[in-house]
């Protein structure tokens, strides 16, 4: 799934890509198991997509309903930062939800450089980096 997110980020460069992490919450929301990703379209204003993304709310709701019908949840969102660090921006803080994971893929010259996962503090003041465990198979 990491390769899928990085491939998506490369394919949309120099614009930001965005997508959803589908899976299950475990341990009182403290652990998330991603079973699949779902590419979403960046519908932010075209001239600003090099540093902004927005997911159409109706498409998000459709994806959430689809996940729920298969016994899963939207447990996070991924997006890319073209020519910027794999760290959420102030804009990202303004639109994030505390329980979700936010994976940011740093892409430089069409090449994924670094990928990190973040979670918003409950008081919504900052993101804290999460550990990611990538399992094969």
The main β sheet shows up as: 6 strands, mixed
Annotated CATH topology: Cytidine Deaminase, domain 2
**Helix vs. strand class:** alpha+beta
Q: Percentage of helical residues? A: 10-25%
- The fraction of residues assigned to DSSP E strands is 35-45%
Order of helical and strand elements: HEEHEHEEE
Query: What's the CATH H-level homologous superfamily?
Result: Cytidine Deaminase, domain 2
Instruction: Give the mean pLDDT.
Output: 93
The counted number of beta strands is 6
CATH architecture: 3-Layer(aba) Sandwich
How far is the first residue's CA from the last residue's CA?
A: 11 Å
CATH class: Alpha Beta
Give the count of helical stretches.
3
Task: List the quaternary state of the chains.
Answer: single chain
Total count of domains: 1
Rg on CA atoms, Å: 14 Å
Query: Strand sequence of the main sheet, in spatial order?
Result: 2-1-3-4-5-6
Spans where pLDDT lies below 50 across 5 or more residues: none
Structural summary, described in words:
With 137 residues, the chain is α+β, with helices and mostly antiparallel strands. It has one domain: Cytidine Deaminase, domain 2 (3-Layer(aba) Sandwich), CATH 3.40.140.10. A 6-stranded mixed β-sheet has the order 2-1-3-4-5-6. Helix 3 links the parallel strand 3 and strand 4. The longest helix is centred in the middle third of the chain and has 13 residues. The mean pLDDT is 93.
Summary?
This protein has 137 residues and is an alpha+beta fold.
């Amino acid at each position: 799934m990491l390769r899928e997110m990085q491939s998506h980020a490369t394919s949309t460069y120099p614009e930001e890509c965005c997508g959803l992490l589908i899976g299950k919450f475990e341990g009182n929301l403290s652990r998330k198991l991603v079973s699949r990703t779902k590419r979403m379209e960046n519908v932010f204003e075209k001239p600003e997509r090099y540093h902004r993304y927005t997911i159409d709310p109706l498409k998000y709701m459709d994806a959430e309903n689809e996940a729920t019908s298969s016994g899963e949840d939207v447990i996070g969102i991924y997006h890319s930062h073209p020519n910027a660090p794999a760290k959420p921006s102030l804009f990202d803080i303004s639109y994030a939800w505390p329980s979700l994971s936010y994976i940011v893929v740093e892409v430089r010259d069409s090449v994924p450089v670094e990928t990190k996962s973040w979670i918003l503090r409950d008081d919504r003041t900052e993101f804290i980096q999460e550990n990611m465990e990538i399992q094969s198979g």
